[in-house]
Amino acid sequence: MIPLINLGQERAFNPAGALQWLSYAFVAAGWVLATTIAAGAARVFNRR
């Protein structure tokens, strides 16, 4: 996909300082949550 127009999204969301670290923490928490849910689902399906 080739971006043909600029919608201004990069300028609208550009965290800096503490907000940047908070966004990193949210990404890491999402990965941990997704991994935990996948492991739980695999364990439930493995029992049957």
What does this structure look like?
- It is a single chain.
- The chain has 48 residues and is mostly helical.
- The chain has helices spanning 9-12, 18-47.
Low-confidence stretches: none
Mean pLDDT, nearest integer?
Answer: 87
Rg, Cα atoms, Å = 18 Å
In total, the number of strands is 0
The backbone outline, from C-alpha atoms, is elongated
Distance between the termini: 43 Å
Sheet with the most strands? none
The residue fraction in helices comes out at over 70%
Strand content: under 5%
What order do the helices and strands follow? HH
H/I helix tally: 2
Structural class: mainly alpha
Brief description of this entry?
The protein has helices spanning 9-12, 18-47. With 48 residues, the protein is mostly helical.
Task: Describe this protein with a few key phrases.
48 residues; 71% helix; mainly alpha
Reconstruct the topology from this structure.
Layout: H1 9-12, H2 18-47
